[in-house]
Design a protein that fits this description.
Elements lengths: L13 E5 L6 H9 L11 E6 L17 E4 L3 H7 L4 E4 L9 H10 L3 E6 L12 H7 L2 E4 L2 E2 L6 E2 L1 E6 L2 E2 L14 E5 L11
Parallel strand pairs: 1-5, 1-6, 2-3, 2-4, 4-5
Antiparallel strand pairs: 7-8, 9-10, 9-11
Helix pairs in contact: 2-3
The protein binds zinc ion.
Zinc ion binds next to loops.
Length: about 200
Amino acid sequence: MKKEGNYFVRPGVIEGFAGPMMSGKTGKLIQRVDPLRWMNGRFSYMGFKPRVDDRNFNSRSERDFIKWNYIKKPEEIISISKEYDLIAIDEIQFFGKNIVDVVLELQKQEKNIIFSGLDLDFRGEPFGSMPELMAIANEFEKLHSVCTKCGDPAYYTQRLINGEPAHYNSPLISIEGESEYTARCFRHHEVPGKP
Ligand SMILES: [Zn+2]
């Protein structure tokens, strides 16, 4: 049985957005889901974000009309998603390797999957499962920010610890508040100790 769709909900289609910090990835994802609000509940949607630590559990910004489920294991998405037509996944780079299988399973169930995430980590290297996710996406858009040093397009995420560029060997996921992140162009993306 073929699922019903329309311009905004496309069963079995995987769409993605990626870019550095402050490139508007989450905004794009929300904008993409927004029209469903005005369709009188004809289509249903649900959002997921990784639960990186306990502090982000209750955070919810005003503009978010999507209900975000903060989850630890990607498999949880499958059980919660059963009733929904469109599945939005934000900060997808933080999920473990099996997020790829989860997305493919959702596709099999003819969900429309929209994800967003960081394509590269602060070292400028592919982030987690993003290479696979970008490959299995049927439609994909790369976004960029503005370099905080020179104003050129910024494709990289710069991590700063006490205002200084973080060393290559500093942990990939840092404790909130300890590091600052900003966007930089290639020339101004600094990673001391990068081979
Ligand atoms: Zn620059």
